[in-house]
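Hey all, sorry for the wall of text incoming. These are the two entities for the joint prediction.
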Amino acid sequence: MPGPGSAQRWAAAAGRWSCRLLALLLLVPGPGGASEITFELPDNAKQCFYEDITQGTKCTLEFQVITGGHYDVDCRLEDPDGNVLYKEMKKQYDSFTFTASKNGTYKFCFSNEFSTFTHKTVYFDFQVGEDPPLFPSENRVSALTQMESACVSIHEALKSVIDYQTHFRLREAQGRSRAEDLNTRVAYWSVGEALILLVVSIGQVFLLKSFFSDKRTTTTRVGS
Amino acid sequence: GRGWGTARATGMALPLLLGQLLALMGPGDAFYLEVRELEEKCFIQEIPDGTVVIGNYKTELYDPAMEKYQPSPQWINLFVFVKDPENKNLLARQYGPQGSFTFTSQSPGEHQICLHLESIRFALFYDGKLAIHLDMQLGERTNDYAEFAAKDKLTQLHLRVQQLVEQVELIQKEQEYQRWREERFRQTSESTNQRVLWWSILQTFILVATGVWQMQHLKSFFKAKKLV
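and here's what came out:
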């Protein structure tokens, strides 16, 4: 049986590993958090996302269509029993807050089934509960010092700044997508209309000429 | 066995247990989506350069007998491909059934993150449903504050201020990216403006030129036909 030296070494190794694992524990969000995702929804497709939510958690679903067609999408949110909590057709942007009435898997779907050939880029932000605490020993019930409360309120304010920035970025992406569409459409239209003009004006002349070429034989026949 | 005894003796058992529990948990509260094997799902992240993105994921296999999702066996792997706005591959790797992937953006813009599941054994899943739990965090949320605290022995207040500093840096980076995007937008608008301007001039020119040509051609034609 190995002596105490190896046990010490094992303990040191266990200590290091537990610190690493603990660090990993903190990296993963605890109860609550927000997931924001941008994904592409092909035409005639439907994409569903599922999330397990505990009863009593306040959740917010927010979505926005960034590029594609008329910038609209169908959205539908169902609770674990299949009851529809939110259903909107062809919406460009919306935000929906609800409190989970039962435990289970909630499902929300985005559908582009009404569109035949435009695929859409959709952004959504699903906030479940509160954000996880900064460190494990943080106890929200205990009183914070003035400095700490100031930090907490600055943190909340900065979170809303970041939120506004995200919304602004999405709006700008939408505007830019329309501007780029317009740019290509103007290019195609210019070339197309130039060609049409040329074809029509040359065609008119030859058509007119052809009228007189036919009529000349009839008029000479009449004349003679 | 012996290891646990030693761990308990040194008071490290609880973190170790938590760690092991964690390894089974994965991204606790993220959403999941259903996929089939080899079905590729892509996500877009529009981020400024120098942003660290960490994606925590967990995959599960649907068990029809139990009508529930069970954690995936070891031979189901996740393939992650990350493309930056210039279509360069930032990340193209194979990961186990659960864990996390990370990358740092090198240029600002839309990054595409594509995932698909594949079994590295020759097992066919023609009807198998798989679920990918995904949670992508970026910016200051990727920082491990407990590690900062342990390494530099910082107080709680210091940690909070550190978090605020990270948040402000993120805001600054986003604003720089905003300036870059606005410039691109302005270039597109000015290009449209130029195109419309040149098109109007060209159209007027074509109209006048074809009108003149038409008149001349018809005049010479009628003269030839002795109608004028």
